[in-house]
Amino acid sequence: MRRNDPTSDDKIADRNAKLDALHETLTDAVESLVSGQDWQRAMVFAAKFRRYSFGNCLLLYTQSLAAYEKGLLPEPYPRFVAGYRQWQQLGRNVVRGARSFQILAPTTARVAVADDGSVRRLATGEKPEAGEAVATRMVGVRPAHVFPAEFTDGPDLPEVPAPQLLHGEAPPGLWDGLAALIRAKDFRLDDVANAAEIGGANGVTMWGPDRILVRADMEPLARTKTLSHEVGHLVGHDPKDPDVPAHRGIAEVEAESVAAFVLAAHGVDSSDYTVPYVSTWASRAKGVDPVTAVQQTAARVRMIALQILDGLDTQMVPDGDPPGLDRTLDRKGPGRRSGPTTPSPAASAHAAVVDDGLTRRAPHPGRTASAALTDGLRR
C-alpha cells in the first residue's frame, strides 16, 4: 500500500504552526512577568543560560518550570541543555520517551553585498557579480529542539569550577575587573564617605566629569553590586547614544537588571535586588505595547551585561552549554550566540518579536530623537 508522504506545502504548514505556537508561548511568558520578582527570576535564568537569547531563555524557563512541576526535573533550572546530536558528541544519549524543549534557531542564507550596501539573496550555486561580496545573513527562524542534561544518560559530565562564595562575600576579582572597564572608558572611580555626599544614593555615574562614585561605608558585596549597576549605566546609557532610554525609570530598571545578571553569572544570589512591578515601567515606553517593551528592554539588558562579562577575566558559572561541547563540530547548534550574522528585512517580522540573540544591539522603546541624559544616574 502506498504511503502518503507529506508534501512540501504540508511541511511548511507544519513548521509555521510550530512557529506560531512558539511565538504564542513566548508572548504568554513575557506577559507572565508581572512582579519585580518574576523579572529577577527571568534575569537569573538568562544569566545561567547566557549563550541563548532572552527569548529562548524565556522559552526554556517556561518549559523547565512545567517539567519541574510534573516531577521531570529536580529543580526549575536544568543543569545544561544541548541538542540530540550534541549530547551524542559528549557520549550521552537522550533517554527513551524524553520530550525535547523547543526554542527558536536562525535560518541563514548566502547573500551578495554590493559596494553600496544593498543585499540580494544568492541562488544555490550562484556566484556574486563584480563588486559584490558573499556573506551569510539570517533570513528567518525555525523551531529547534534541545534536551536538559537530566533527560540524558551516559558518562558523567566533567565538573565545572564555579565560584564558591560565603554569605556577603564579593566574587574574587569582580571589583577589580569592573574598575578596569571603567578606566578603559577614561572614567575615574572614586569612593565617597557615605550616601549623603551623593544625594542619598549608593553610587552615581556622571558624564562630563566622567566619574563614578560609590559609597565606601558598605560591605564588599554591596559595593560590588553597586559598581555593577553603575557600569551598566556606563556601558548602556551614554547620553550620546541614540538608543538610550528616554525614561529614567527604565534606565534604572536596565542598570539594576544588568547588575543582577552580572552577579548571577558569578554565582551571587540576587534575590534581594529591587525592581518595580513590570507593568509600572513597561507601560511608560512610548510607541510600543508593554509586551514588546519588556522584550526590547530584556534584549538590551542582555546585550549590556554580555558586553561587561566579555571584558572580565573572572570565574563564572557555566553559560548553559554542557562542559566539553565543541560547537565547531556542529555549526548548526540551535540557539547559540553567533557572530556577525544579522537579520535581513525578510526576517524583520519575526526578529522584531523574538530576540534572536544574533545581534548585540536592540533599539530601546520610547526613545525620542531629542531625549538625552544630562545628569548623573544614581542607584
TrEMBL record:
Residues 313-379 are annotated as: Disordered. Residues 340-352 have a biased composition (Low complexity). It holds the Pfam family ArdcN. Residues 37-129 form the N-terminal domain. This is ArdC-like ssDNA-binding domain-containing protein. It comes from Promicromonospora vindobonensis.
